[in-house]
């Protein structure tokens, strides 16, 4: 008698009418496939988180269309991009940092620094292209210095970027305390002119640039070695180092990207509001973090999509639009709602993360 002869017969599962019996092995294979699909698609995956954010956005916008007249107009939806272009760019930079498990608290202050520098240099008669280059270089330089301190000195990102926030805000006040109006012809033309779309709708140049930044960031994260290293560091920095990946260069690089995006966000905000002021952007870094988390990026790093951050910003913009359309609610309800959503998404990430670990 062979070993195969002593194997117990497979359990037979009752067949449906007109069908054939299914064995326990086939059932186990089907269950394994389902578990694999859950791990890769729903439990804890970036795709699932983005889908949840997209559904939330559709529900909020649909509720507004039903509740308020004219809310469902296409231009109202496009205005979410127009009015939040600077925050979209800011959230893109924050996504890179959070994917590595870091944080950047200096973003809002760098936005203010960008507006003040642009306004002051334009007031002094500098050409607009030179002003733009100087502002972007300053943001990238600040990000590079913070990245060096975080990686080279092994300091906590929270402390380093908090120091960067105070530094950038202090430089703002050193340059100018009062608000500085921007009257440059180039900045004014960019602020006034729009990109015409079918149906009498339009997008601002700032919104178009923000979408381009999202597309470039998505390509970098998913189609380049640098992007793959970002995800690897967020998953396990020690494992990434053992694999021979450029951990140090990448960690410094994400803060350079964040600083660059913050400065670019400052330029977009200065075009949007046509002024530079030291108190611009207070708390804006928290809005960016909230948008990134609501978009599905995990705070501990390693998982998230730039598309999710874009949707997160649109969710925040939709909440503000709903409160504006109501007219009777205090603007602080925006903060309350965002706080509740942020808590819900953090709990969702925690639960799905546990289910993913259990399933594996």
From TrEMBL:
Record organism: Geodermatophilus amargosae
Membrane topology: Multi-pass membrane protein
Gene Ontology MF terms in the entry: transmembrane transporter activity
NCBIfam families listed in its UniProt record: PRK11618.1 (NF008630)
Domain of life: Bacteria
Entry keyword Transport: yes
Name of this protein: Simple sugar transport system permease protein
Keywords for this protein: Cell membrane, Membrane, Sugar transport, Transmembrane, Transmembrane helix, Transport
One Pfam entry name: BPD_transp_2
